[in-house]
Amino acid sequence: EVVLVESGGGLVQPGGSLRLSCQASGFTFDSYAMSWVRQAPGKGLEWVSSISGSGDNTYDTDSVKGRFTISRDNSKNTLDLQMNSLRAEDTALYYCAKQSLRRTEFDFWGQGTLVIVSS
Amino acid sequence: EIVLTQSPGTLSLSPGERATLSCRASQSISSGYLCWYQQRPGQAPRLLTYGASTRAAGVPDRFSGSGSGTDFTLTISRLEPEDFAVYYCQQYGNSPRVWTFGQGTRVEVK
Question: Would the CB atoms of A50 and B46 count as touching at under 8 Å?
Fold first, then answer.
């Protein structure tokens, strides 16, 4: 059974930093690309960042480029998101999502970790 | 950048009725790159269909996806109580590599 468990969310001031983590189990982690997808309170889904199975290739949405860094440790089956220079508009529930082998969709999701950026 | 527009914003129906949800892309996309998710209140999204029309594992056959080019549809043949939720379409773009969601359609009890 695929299980994704996020952690690391919390309240942070504008301009601050936070590191999110996702512990994965139930599948061959390094065979799959992984992503972070966020959802602002009461709003829709927004893709944030993706990383290939090997970790060699990363992709980010424009609004987080230069501020967020996605990474993975295949020896520990973990996915991370380092978030710097946080803004109020980064406030959201952040989901860790496994991509299918096709890489075009997200076939399993965690329950999310909440990030609140506020003074 | 491709924009996905879902309609209607809210669909008010009764259990047992048929639901038809639309997802329109701002330019033609490969049907292989279009999928649908269901999100129940307080829950994470769940993949329903991918490749426009292939149901994900464990998804009931009352859910069906169709479409091509710029117009895609998710149909729920007979609404069950657990189907009242928000539905999102999503497309994958490979140059640049991005994953884009529609704004969602809420299916609510009439």
Answer: no
Task: Residue count of chain B, please give it.
Answer: 110
Alpha-carbon distance B96 to nearest alpha carbon in chain A (angstroms): 9
Tokens of A81: 């998101």
Place of tokens 């997200």: A106
pLDDT tens track for A43-81: 999 999 999 999 999 999 999 999 999 999 999 999 999
With beta carbons under 8 A apart, name residues in chain A contacting B101.
Answer: 44-47
Give the whole-angstrom CA distance, residue B59 versus residue B79: 14
Decide: A48 and A35 in contact? Cβ < 8 Å. Answer: yes
A104 vs B50: CB contact, 8 Å cut-off? yes
Task: Check the CA dihedral A25-A31-B43-B48 and report its sign.
Answer: negative
Structure tokens at B24: 């329109």
